[in-house]
Each structure stands twice: as structure tokens, then as C-alpha cells.
Amino acid sequence: MAGQQRGRGGPVPSDVTIVEVSPRDGLQNEAVHLSTADKVELVTRLVEAGARRVEAVSFAHPRVVPAMADAEAVMAAAPRRDGVSYIGLVLNRRGLDRALDAGVDEVNAVVAVSDAFSRRNQGTGTEEAVRVAAEVVAAARSAGLRTTVTLATAFGCPFEGEVHPDRVADVAARAAEGADELCLGDTIGVGVPTQVRDLADAVRGRVGDALPLRWHFHNTRNTGYANAVAALGTGSTVLDASAGGIGGCPFAPAATGNVATEDLAYLLERMGHRTGLDLPALLPTAAFLADRLGHPVPALLPRAGTFPG
Amino acid sequence: MAGQQRGRGGPVPSDVTIVEVSPRDGLQNEAVHLSTADKVELVTRLVEAGARRVEAVSFAHPRVVPAMADAEAVMAAAPRRDGVSYIGLVLNRRGLDRALDAGVDEVNAVVAVSDAFSRRNQGTGTEEAVRVAAEVVAAARSAGLRTTVTLATAFGCPFEGEVHPDRVADVAARAAEGADELCLGDTIGVGVPTQVRDLADAVRGRVGDALPLRWHFHNTRNTGYANAVAALGTGSTVLDASAGGIGGCPFAPAATGNVATEDLAYLLERMGHRTGLDLPALLPTAAFLADRLGHPVPALLPRAGTFPG
């Protein structure tokens, strides 16, 4: 259980790290591309509201993910604070070289568990992605960076359908070799709490309890927050979320995005967990994003208000 | 635990009854009032999709809740099927007389745990509402009807703030005397899973395990579905939900509504529970509601689609 305890009624209150992914997963699929200055303002707002791990940029090829083409400029202008760690998403060795030059603190390498999704998303099958991720992790570690491997489509694939937990565990065992953290991603927002528990069991049965699990949930079908609670129930304490809940999937265009940082923080704090986030400071960021993106954002707390008020 | 078992990873898969509340809680606060014919179409759609308990009407005074003024006409035209039970919301003895004349199968009497909310919502304090509910329950039972007492604002009040579980248990012990079911309502959508467990413990500690608990969640702050999973974890098997997720609270105008029947059914079925609902048959109802109400509805499954497809 990775050092965690479990109470009779659910997870014991603990410190929970919300990895803020709005600058990367949130923005990368938006029709409107934010200016570098607006991205830096977003990152600054997040850090000032207490975010300590921020997935700020992606080093995917600019032709494939044009919204992230200014990753180097964003990193150069992002505020540097003690205790704040910036994460760069990396898909290959060239991306890692850019990440190292740009001065990220952490690297997140992605492997899609579903072969069909991997080919469409990254242009390579899962096996090749595993090989590349291992190379990226080894090189990043040599450079002194913290490393995460994220397994995309771990809860289901829009092309292949169901993904079995044993398949996820099998890919995890090979992809996460040497990484500091393994992130299980519900890329298209189909997962449910029983799957969270099944995946945690299957993966830990293969890679052991020492490797911390991080979780990436989308609220596409209103299951994301229940999944987050279930993940804490398995002993994990690291969850991805996105300010405003922005961040859809390009293969599910009508879908809502990541679980919203505000709503997740409200849920967790009311359950007795500590996120380190300052909700009143964070809330106006949703309106900033809605204004810059030109559409409402899915987060509900900015509309409904905190409680008690 | 009311005959329920609890697995190591959460509730054991079971039959879950979703009480469909869109015709009542869903519609009563909408600016647009549906025609009687449209309400009957809604009820018919729900029954044809498998709904077996439907809160179809309210017998609140027509001056106070004008959207429900045609309760008798809706009941007269609603399709009668074996196994389908229609519930009428009743706030006083006059409402019960109307409900009996209209031929409902069940009565739902409401008591707001918060005195301030009770005065604004029902025009009487909590103590008077408890007395009236007891009278309604006794008379309804004499008439052979199934009875529920719903405790509104059991998770928090927009005027008084926090509501302590002991207060809820105290009101429950007096209000639910003789009722067949006790429903705990998160009227303004502030609750979290730990509160669900605390409330279940507190109430069962006072009224015992024999009285079945039903739960009414709003997804105002994106906690509703996690709360639903937590409620199953306490051994309950009856949850309110509203097709399309319609149904805000008049004291929280920007807020989204009840948990959506479609999204809750998806979540529960994927967890191995059986709801008896036919999701493909139910999904078009969200578009019907959006069309009649003139605005999008909060349910996400109708936009994202089921999985696997």
C-alpha cells in the first residue's frame, strides 16, 4: 500500500498531491492556442494558488501538437519557486533533448497500452513506445531528472474497446522499469471505481508496492471524481487534475475534460485530506481560461461557490 | 447493513434501484413549465427505459410550486404498468388528500433538517415539519401507501452552513417514525463521501438498521457520483437521480442539478451493479428535455456515448 493506511470507511486523511496538468493536457487540444504570455500567466496563477507539480509543457513535435510549439519559451518565462517542479511531456529522445535544454524538473513519458491508440496518437505501436520510454527514462535519470511513465488508455480505448488489467500490468512492468512513478491514465474517461481497484491490484502484483502510482482521470462520463476517491482508497496520494476542468481528448470531441482541480480540491479537503491549494486564490483562474479559450469550462465550483461560503 | 455485504474493494455488486426524480425535482424549478402532455411523455419515456419508481408529481401548493400545478392531470395520464410505482411529494395533509385522490402509489414527505431552510422552503420550522410529516406518514400508511420521509439539507444548508450528523440523526429518529424508507438529501450539492458514511452511521445508530436508507444527491460541485458510490458502500441500494441531470435548487441558481440517471446507471452497471435501466432507450430523453426546456442539460453520457460503444 505504499506506506498508506486504509480506514474502515475509506482512505485515511492524508496529504494529496494534485499534479496540475491544465497548461499541457488542458490546452493541447483546444482550437484556440493561448499566447505564450497567457500560458505563463496560467502557470503563474497555478503556482501562486499552491500548485507544486505542474505539467507545464509538451515536447511533442510541433507539427503534431502545434499548441505546444512554444514549450521552450513557456519554460523560460515560468516563475521559479522553491518546491515547485515543472514537468515536461516527452514522447521520444528528441523531445527529451528539448526538455533537458528547456530546464524542466521532471519528465513524463507516455505509452499507450492500446496498440491502435498508440499508432494514432504517437505514430508507433505500444511495443516501440515501451522501448522509447525506457530509453527516455534512463537518459532523464542520468541527467538527474525525476521520471514518470504514464500509461494512456489504461481504462479503455476508443478503437479497441476494453483493456484488460493484466495487459496494463504487463505493459507497466516493462515500461516503468527505472521510473520514479507510474501514472495510469483514463484517457477517454470511461473508467469506474472498481476498475481503479482492479488496476491497482494488477499493476502492484507485477511491479510491486514500491513504485508510487499516480492517476489521470477524465470526467467525460461523470465518473472521474468517484475514480479519484477510489484511487486514494488504494493508497495512492498523487492525482492529476486540470484547472477549470479543461482538456478534452481529440478522439472524443464532445467530451468534457480532465477532472477539475478546483472541484477535486474541494472534494478532498472536505474529506479531510490536505492538498496545499488555496481555493479562493485558484477559483478566478476558471474565468481567465474561459475568457482566453472563448467557451465555458467544465469546473463547477467556480459557478456554485465553496461551502461553507 | 440492511442485508448488504461489503467487499474488500467496495460494495458487492447488487441490484440498485434508481428512483427517477426528473418529473418532480427536475422540473419544479425550471423557468419553462412543461405542458402536461410533455410531462406525460417524459414519464412514459422513463418507464419504457426501465424506471420502476418514478417521483412523478408534487402536491405542494400550486401558488408556491406552479410548475407542479397539474399533478392530478399528470397522474391521470401516466402509463400504468405492473411493477411501476409512482411517487407524489407531499408537504402537508392537504397535499396528501390530493395525492390519495390522484392515485399515487407512494408518498414522499419532506422535512428540512435546517430550520432556516425549512422556513423558506416550506413556511414552517423543522419541528412543525416533523409533526406534519408524522401525520402524513400515518395517514398514508392507513390508506395502504408506501411512505418515505426525505430529510432535506442533510449535508449542509445555504443559510446555516454545516449541519451536524447528530442533528440529522435526531430529526430522523422523530420524522421517520412509521415510514418505510428514509431518504437523506444533499439539497444544495455540498456533500462528500466521508459525510455519506458519517451520516449513515449516525442515523443507523439512532433509528437502527431495519429502516432502509435512500439517498438524494445533487452534482452541484462534482461530488454527487462519488457520494453515490459511497452510499452503496454503506449498504444502501436506493439512489435518486434525474434524467438529463436536470433539477437545480432555487437557492443556488447557477448550480447544476441532480445526479443524472444516465451517468449514474453507466457508472453502476460498469461496476457490476444491475439497475434494470436500458441505457440506449434512455439516452434520447436528454435531448427531449433539452429541447423542451430550451437549454442544454448536465448529463454527460448523452454527449460522450456509452462504452464500449
From TrEMBL, chains A, B:
GO MF annotation, one: metal ion binding
Residue ranges of domain Pyruvate carboxyltransferase in the record: 16-283
Record carries keyword Metal-binding: yes
Pfam family, one: HMGL-like
GO annotation terms (biological process): ketone body biosynthetic process; L-leucine catabolic process
Keywords (A to Z) from UniProt: Lyase, Metal-binding
Residues in coiled coil: none
Signal peptide bounds: none
Superkingdom of the organism of origin: Bacteria
Family per similarity comment: Belongs to the HMG-CoA lyase family.
PANTHER family attached to this UniProt entry: HYDROXYMETHYLGLUTARYL-COA LYASE
Protein name: Hydroxymethylglutaryl-CoA lyase
Organism: Vallicoccus soli
